[in-house]
Amino acid sequence: MSLQSFLYRETRWVRNNAAALVIVLLILPAMFAGATLAFQQVIPRDTPIAVAPADDTVNQDSLHAIQGVSATFSRPSTFESRDAAMRALAREEVYAVFVVPPDLLDQERSSTIEMIVEEEMVPYEQPSLAIRSLLDRNLHQLIEGVSVTRTTVGEQKTLSEFLLSASALLLTMVYAFVLLPHVVASERSVYRRIRVTGSLGTLLTAKFAVFSALMVVPILGGQAIANHFDLAVNLLHPTAIGITLLTFCYLAAIAVGVMFLFKFSTLGRLVNIALLFGGVVFASMVYPAGFFSPLRRTVAKLLPMHYSMIVQRGVSLKGNGPGLYADYIAALLGVTLLALLFLYGSVRYYEWRA
Amino acid sequence: MSDHGTRQATDSTPAIDPLVVDGVSKRYGDVVALEDVSIQVDPGTIHCLLGPNGSGKTTLFDVVLGLTSPTSGTIDRGGGTIGCGFQTATYYPDLTVDENLETFARMTAGVDPSWRERVTEELGLDTVADRTAGNLSGGWGKRLDLALAVLARPAYVVLDEPLDDLDDVVRKRVLSFFESYRADGGSLLVATHRAGAFEGLADHVTILDRGEVVLDVPTAALETPLQSAYLDHFG
């Protein structure tokens, strides 16, 4: 056979997979190029921080002054109390709390602003040191006798511990967007028979049950590694396991729904890969939201994976109770319900079109 | 229409009514796949559905199996269970033959183990029980698909080109199995282009052409052999 005949076959392949190739060769690279716009700086300038009064005597002018000064390297919000700000810190609504003293604007007295950060937020440790210096220098230029101290709360963690906590959810994303859709697609030939003898809904229920159970294996593996290297991470906290499984459930429902929607085509697989990359890039699961740009912060706040990560990190790394994240968990349950409805709709559409 | 009527109850099977397709039409936009199709499959019969490619056989199967809804018309399955064998392989490729049979047996309540054993033996699948289904040749795959179709011993079995990929020896074996299935009170609705293979076996024949029924008679009423009747119509 001549090379020409094989080339003819390849040109037919290109024609028959034109849509998939447009995604791989055009849209995905464009997305990558576009996604670089979401990375604007390597020193955080847009991470949310809290400005809170030390007590009731702190006036609004003092709070506004700190808010104004800190706006050059963060996105400040004013909280009514230190407790409210600390709660926001634990929930990763903010990544630092600036506690403003009552005598800040009194030029005749020296005062100290307390900057509070969490030890567990390891990627923010060095930036927070830089921010403290920046705030200290900027304030000195405006108000004499003001200094900034940096206080840490929580337990000191290593980068390994931080990343191990995040890895459970990152792996869950891979399983949900790649492994399960691949398995579901590889069995598509049997679905006509299943539709006569049973139902695709029951089949998917069984598949979700088994794969959810399998998700526990990497969690156990991760915990075994943590124990072996004395890493202080509790991946086996019931809420941590629960949130991992819930995350798998809503992501898998979306991914499998996409496969049914696109009739298990290459296009469907590529859409899932695009969703996976989009999630990894924009959900701010490792670095604080707003670390690289305000755009990433805005998008992250819209993605459920961001909140899954906050809850997972909160219970497995920080040792917080699930009650602190009750609204996040409720919202994630709602997202799961919507994702399952999407899956149901996709399957019905597939059956109607088949 | 055949005159077999309602099947009487036996020790192993309850009495069921005929499977009736009444005035079924199916349209995909402006394309008419089926137009006012009416057939009746009587209990304990083999009903051949003949027609060239694109005549609407597969659409009619999908309607009978409930895989697609008719645009108009009704389907009455006579209260009987229904099994299906498709033109392409519809089993788990990663499971062995035996595991596939076990999987689908578990999906259907009340599969008689002795019946499963008999089906496996009659179709020769016991010799390849441990082979991965995805590695089976076309003929073996067809036999596995057939076994899955009759595994629950349904009252009606709907088969799409069940003799494709089978050599002459196996084809004879499968036809013999069809005969015994009918003798046990089961019914088969078979779409095939091998009209000759069902000569002397089919009780009723329906010929479809461009979505319409052009012939629907008991084979006993045919004046020519089945194959000739089919070819004469399209000749």
What descriptive keywords fit this protein?
heterodimer; A: 354 residues; alpha/beta; abc type-2 transporter like fold; 5-stranded mixed beta sheet; 13 helices; B: 235 residues; Rossmann fold; 3-stranded antiparallel beta sheet; 6 helices; 29% helix; 25% strand; globular; disordered N terminus
- Radius of gyration of chain B, in angstroms, nearest whole number: 17 Å
| Biggest beta sheet attributes of chain A | 5 strands, mixed
Tertiary shape of chain B = globular
State the CATH class of the largest domain in chain B. Answer: Alpha Beta
Looking at this structure, what is the CATH superfamily of the largest domain in chain B? P-loop containing nucleotide triphosphate hydrolases
Mean of residue pLDDT values of chain A: 89
List the helices and strands and how they pair.
The complex is a heterodimer of chains A (354) and B (235).
Chain A: H1 3-16, H2 18-36, E1 48-53, H3 60-70, E2 75-78, H4 82-90, E3 97-100, E4 111-118, H5 125-142, E5 146-153, H6 159-186, H7 191-197, H8 200-228, H9 238-261, H10 266-282, H11 294-300, H12 304-316, H13 326-353
Parallel strand pairs in A: 1-2, 1-3, 4-5
Antiparallel strand pairs in A: 3-4
Helix pairs in contact in A: 2-10, 6-8, 6-9, 6-10, 6-12, 8-9, 9-10, 9-12, 9-13, 12-13
Chain B: E1 19-28, E2 31-41, E3 46-50, H1 57-65, E4 72-76, E5 82-85, H2 97-107, H3 113-122, H4 138-150, E6 156-160, H5 168-183, E7 187-191, E8 204-209, E9 212-218, H6 226-234
Parallel strand pairs in B: 3-7, 3-8, 5-6, 6-7
Antiparallel strand pairs in B: 1-2, 1-4, 8-9
